[in-house]
Amino acid sequence: MVLCIGPEGSGKTLLLKKIQDPDYVDNTTASIPTVGTNILSLQLGDKIYTIRELGGSIAPLWPKYFYDVGKVMYVVDASNLCQISTAGVLLYTVLAHPLLRNAKFLLVLTKMDASYRQMRNEALLMLQMKRLQKEIKQKITIVEASAITGLGREDILKWISSQ
Ligand SMILES: Nc1nc2c(ncn2[C@@H]2O[C@H](COP(=O)(O)OP(=O)(O)OP(=O)(O)O)[C@@H](O)[C@H]2O)c(=O)[nH]1
Ligand SMILES: [Mg+2]
């Protein structure tokens, strides 16, 4: 099971739609926050992967879903640096959870279509990634993405299907 988490409105639902369907174009004028969880399955080759999104609004309940999780996609809105310290604190508590001690992590900096190039570095600085990577034992892969342009889609698929 792959878990997809991150703060409210960070872009999880739209990114997962784009991952499932590269031709997906969002025509909705207002997005609907995920209240609770959202499950999707993804066929890659002859394997089917299950991805569960947990809405940012139920962050206090996330740990209820940490059983049987091998991989965690943590989605951060790179275009909104105001929200990023909250994202960092949440990420830290997730990384520190005993049930996820052996999980693989993917840090997705999304909405890159709406960000300046430099914002990637700012985001990683504000998330204190250097320090985090020294302190925790899980491997964190970092990818830049956009649900609008499809940036990062291939890398995310590769990560999902990797051992
Ligand atoms: N420019 C841009 N906007 C995006 C991108 N991804 C999502 N958005 C917008 O960000 C808003 C929130 O997106 P969602 O995918 O619903 O966010 P979420 O992380 O699922 O939010 P919760 O379910 O509430 O936790 C929507 O208005 C999306 O259209 C992106 O890659 N680029
Ligand atoms: Mg959602």
TrEMBL record:
InterPro entries: P-loop_NTPase, Small_GTPase_ARF/SAR. It comes from the Eukaryota. Keywords: GTP-binding, Magnesium, Metal-binding, Nucleotide-binding. It holds the Pfam family Arf. Mg(2+) binds at T13, T34. SUPFAM superfamilies: P-loop containing nucleoside triphosphate hydrolases. Signal peptide: none annotated. Gene3D superfamilies: P-loop containing nucleotide triphosphate hydrolases (3.40.50.300). GTP binds at G6, P7, E8, G9, S10, G11, K12, T13, G56. GO terms for molecular function: GTP binding; GTPase activity; metal ion binding. PANTHER family: ADP-RIBOSYLATION FACTOR-LIKE PROTEIN 16. This is ADP-ribosylation factor-like protein 16. It comes from Rhynchophorus ferrugineus (Red palm weevil). The lineage of its organism: Eukaryota, Metazoa, Ecdysozoa, Arthropoda, Hexapoda.
